[in-house]
Each structure stands twice: as C-alpha cells, then as structure tokens.
C-alpha cells in the first residue's frame, strides 16, 4: 500500500532584530505606553534644559549682543526703550548744567545775552533739545550758538555716541526680527515614529513635511537617540546621544522637501535599537530627536528645526 511520506523541510528565517523575533503578547497595556516621561526636547522643538548654578555670569556680558538677541521680546523691547530714554536724559541733564553754569537761566529775557543754546529755558527744553540732537530731527527752534565751545564739544560727543547706540540697538532688533524661528511652525514632523517591515527589512520610519510654497534650500536631516547608558567600567552617562543613521552614507539625508517625505532608518546590527526587544521597548526611557537644517528660500537665512518623536511598534497581522 502506498503511503504519503512527509519529508521535513528546513526553512531559514532571515536574521532579524529582537523586535521581530520575540514571541510576545499582541497587546500592550496603554498605561505602560503612556508613562509620563520628562522630555529632553519638547514637541515644539524647544530644548527642555535649564542652566542653573552658573557662577561665571560675566561671560554673558562679554557677548552682550548675543545676550540681548537671546532675550525674550518683552525684555528686549524694555531694554530698547530704556537705553534711548537714559541717553536722552543723560545728555539733557548735561545741556541743562551747561546752561545753568554759564548763567543762561538768568538772562532768558535779555536780548543782548548770547546763550549756549537759544530758547533753552529749563530742564524740559534741554531734554527736548537732547532728543532733537541725537535723533537728528532739527526743528530749528532750539539751536546751539558759536559762543559756546563746551556745547560744541558736547554736540560732537552726543552725535557720535548716538550713532553707536542706534547701530547697536537697531542691529540687535533687526537680527532678532530676521531670525527664522517662526519658519519652523510650518515644518511638521509626524507625531509618532513607527517600526515595521519595509522591503524585507525592519525599519524605523517617520514623516516630515513643509506647509509653505517657499522651499527649504539644501535641507538635510539627522536624528539622535537620547538615552542614559552605563559603560563596561561602571560609569553612568546620563542623556547619552547616539546617532541614528537616516541615510548619511547613501545621501538620503539630503532632502528635496516639496512634498511630505518618509524618513527611514534600517534596524541592523549597527543600529542602536538592535538589542532592544519588543517587550523591552515600552519600558525603555529613550527619546528620538530629529533635526532638520536648511536655508529659507525667501530670506537666505539658516534655519534649524528639531522635533521629538514617540516610538510606536505596530502589532503584526495575525
């Protein structure tokens, strides 16, 4: 009698990371995936790092221009108004002192007296003359005479210092206004990064898109894995940064961002996710920071946009 004989067949599975090999329960508790984790970079791209106990605060004053640019708008505008007001008051006080010392206040109604500044009869008028001099308004009502050498010297000093103040403060405001920070509002990242199979390879994927019609020139993207680690010598390194290859060697990290693109990272033996299993992934305290760099087409200014992604490993089809 003929009998069917089944011969054993050996199937060689491709070598995959632990995320695809482990036989684990299909469903993961939502409470475990929604643990409250303090972020290194917030979702809006701002770094959640606060510098404290800085003893050498004088270093901020050595680069006062950058310090002013980095201040918030309300403080920047306050300093802008205060600098001009203080300089006007300071030179107005000096103009009033010159008139007071020369005796111009005692000969206001004397037509034969030649004052240092005509029609200067008090501190308010001296303050107004200081504003007219520094801002080069020149109404023509209050003018300096040639009989006052100290006034001529003060006029030269105020004109030069006023030009320096204008260059410094207007330059500071221009740099702050032209910063392309708001350009980042129209560059969006996907909320979640997904781990799934693509072309037979296990990949970590996320999307990035530009909402504006003006393009980002020479756009390039890179990603970092933020995770604490302990070395083989026992040293604990908090917030260790590890590169995530998103196409550096193949050129895929240089983007032509005219439509939303899917950025892919292959999880191979060189990947920092290779040793993380699917069961271990929800328990890991890690963070993925994506950085997009480029130049704004309209202004030519450089722009750096960073985003924070939440890692999601989808369930396999049954």
Automatic annotation (TrEMBL):
Gene Ontology molecular functions: G-protein activated inward rectifier potassium channel activity
What are the residue boundaries of the Potassium channel inwardly rectifying transmembrane domain, all occurrences included? Answer: 41-180
TM annotation in the entry = 77-101, 151-175
Q: Does the keyword Transferase apply?
A: no
Organism of origin is Camelus dromedarius
Reactions listed under catalytic activity: K(+)(in) = K(+)(out)
Q: Where is the Inward rectifier potassium channel C-terminal domain?
A: 187-301
Give the protein's recorded name: G protein-activated inward rectifier potassium channel 2
The superkingdom listed in its UniProt entry is Eukaryota
Q: What is its main location?
A: membrane
Which controlled-vocabulary keywords does the entry list?
Ion channel, Ion transport, Membrane, Phosphoprotein, Potassium, Potassium transport, Transmembrane, Transmembrane helix, Transport, Voltage-gated channel
